[in-house]
Amino acid sequence: MPETRLTFEIQPDPPARLDKALARDVPADAALSRSRLARLLEDGAVAVNGEIVTSGKGRVGAGDRVVLTLAAPAESHMGAEPIPLEVVFEDAELIVVNKPAGMVVHPAPGTPGGTLVNALIHHCGDSLSGVGGEKRPGIVHRIDKDTSGLLVAAKTDRAHHGLAAQFEAHDVDRHYRAICHGVPDASDPRLRGLRGTSFESGNVLRIQAELARHKHDRQKQAVVRSGGRHAVTRVRIVSALCRPPAAALVDCWLETGRTHQIRVHMAHVGHALIGDPVYGGRRKLPVAAAGEAGAAAARAFPRQALHAATLGFTHPVTGDRLSFEAPVPPDMAGLLAVLDPDA
User: Fold this and answer.
1) What are the pLDDT digits (tens) for 7-55?
2) pTM
């Protein structure tokens, strides 16, 4: 793909600085972020009235002619890997996949390969038109390595900006299925007296508790009284499990999207997810309720029992409302069958 040139004029009453004027007046469909515009300035790819400008501090006037030279997207520094993907939806702008448990979303020092991004680069190939000037997918949200389920990634700059804006504004519908210890029911007086919890109509548990990094373990999150990030999770019982009930399949949805939010909030209210190695502690299902097989299956479950089951958003280019569902994977379905054999 050759380089392209984008030409536009500075509109009346421009900001005092060039970089701010560019951010205001660059055509919206170009989907150029402030950081991308700053890089273009540094690279000598911005001309004002025919003169190359490399500093954003200069002034411009209404009617000044700006030409941006956009280089062809560079190949990503992250390698393409032929990892199988379950693609739920794909078009020229974005892709929705059902991520398996055990797959990291983005490369990091500890996991340089084998990630969802590596798989997407291989799968999408030349259909990646470039995000931030590089041929890579635009990741606008993540789910934990050992959480399965739906995730959307952008294939173009304009889709990336549009999706990121929806996630920032909390305009995305995300529901998770989880299997937790105990049954978070409104009849439990302990829950009603717990700080930050309340019940809404329909026996929906609302958890509002700020989250911050754990004081002693920087890999963990913790509920804090103040100074953390605002976080709200809602929880609805789908079905009580075991006889008598000792666990539950629940529907959790996010008003905010913080790291480990569901896992931390559920542990905070005494309903940690089965299999959660970080926040679940050593809690076990009682044999009297779950039976030998059920208690053993829960004890041996190798990950947090959490699945991103539904994902809904507005297509950032067409404006269509899209909604997707993914059933719980076989490992969670098998655990449910053992814990609730009559279901």
Assistant:
1) 889 999 999 899 999 989 988 777 777 887 888 898 888 989 998 999 9
2) 0.80
Residues 233 and 147 in one domain: no
DSSP structure string for 133-192: TEES-EE-----TT-EEEEEEESBHHHHHHHHHHHHTT--EEEEEEEEES---TT-HHHH
| CA distance readout (Å), 336 to 122, 174, 197, 307 | 35, 22, 27, 13
Same domain for 183 and 325: yes
Radius of gyration of the chain (CA): 24
Q: What angle do CA 326, 330, 336 make, to 5 degrees?
A: 100
Domain limits at 147? 75-169
Q: Under DSSP, is residue 115 helix (H, G, I), strand (E, B) or coil? A: coil
Q: How far apart are CA 22 and CA 3, in angstroms?
A: 20
Q: Work out whether strand 74-75 and strand 94-99 pair parallel, antiparallel, or are unpaired.
A: unpaired
Residue 340 falls in the annotated catalytic set = no
8-state DSSP, 33: -
Three-class HEC string of 122-140: HHHHHHCCEECCEECCEEC
List, as one string, the DSSP characters of 287-338.
Answer: HHHHHHHHHHHHHH--S--EEEEEEEEE-TTT--EEEEE-PPPHHHHHHHHH
Query: Which listed residue (144, 157, 188, 340) is catalytic?
Result: 144
